[in-house]
Amino acid sequence: MYVLGNQMARTNAGKQNVTISISPETVRKARILAARRSTSISGLLAEEVERLVGAEEAWERSERSALALLEQGFHLGGVITASRDELHER
Predict the structure, then answer these.
(1) H/E stretch holding 86
(2) How far apart are the two ends of the chain, measured CA to CA in Å?
(3) Segment 47-63 mean pLDDT
(4) What is the pLDDT of residues 2-44, one digit of tens each?
(5) Cα→Cα distances 90→55, 85, 86, 87, Å
(6) Global confidence as pTM
(7) Contact 9, 2 (CB under 8 A)
(8) What is the DSSP track for 63-82?
(9) Separation in Å, CA 1 to CA 4, 8, 18, 26, 71
(10) Three-class secondary structure of residue 4 per DSSP
(11) Sequence-separated (6 or more) residues with CB below 8 Å from residue 1
């Protein structure tokens, strides 16, 4: 939270805290990576989780679209002139 004049603004408005446990070595490396990207470990993790969720949502939309196309079928321009029985005569 930071103060602007007499107004308080929250930098985490609309966000929820999450607690995770990771090894000290990973924390050390994450601090370095976050510093290189001019962010915090929290910001780094939030960005990555949002990217993963977005990718998953895009995959689900693509899958639904593909399944709808398969369900609809494709007209390949051919015309069936024989009956089913004629096709299966032995």
Answers:
(1) helix 84-87
(2) 81
(3) 97
(4) 444 444 445 667 889 999 999 999 999 999 999 999 999 999 9
(5) 52, 10, 9, 9
(6) 0.61
(7) yes
(8) HHHHHHHHHH----S----S
(9) 10, 7, 17, 27, 51
(10) strand
(11) 8, 9, 10, 11, 12
Token output for 22: 């990771």
**What is the predicted pLDDT for the residue at 8?**
44
Return left, alpha or beta for 54; rule: phi > 0 is left, psi -120 to 50 is alpha, else beta: alpha
Angle between helices 41-72 and 24-36 (to 10 degrees): 90
Q: Looking at this protein, which amino acid is placed at residue 46?
A: A
DSSP string, 6-73: TEEE-TTTT---------HHHHHHHHHHHHHTTS-HHHHHHHHHHHHHHHHHHHHHHHHHHHHHHHH-
Whole-angstrom distance, CA of residue 12 vs CA of residue 16: 8
- The helix/strand/coil state of 2 is strand
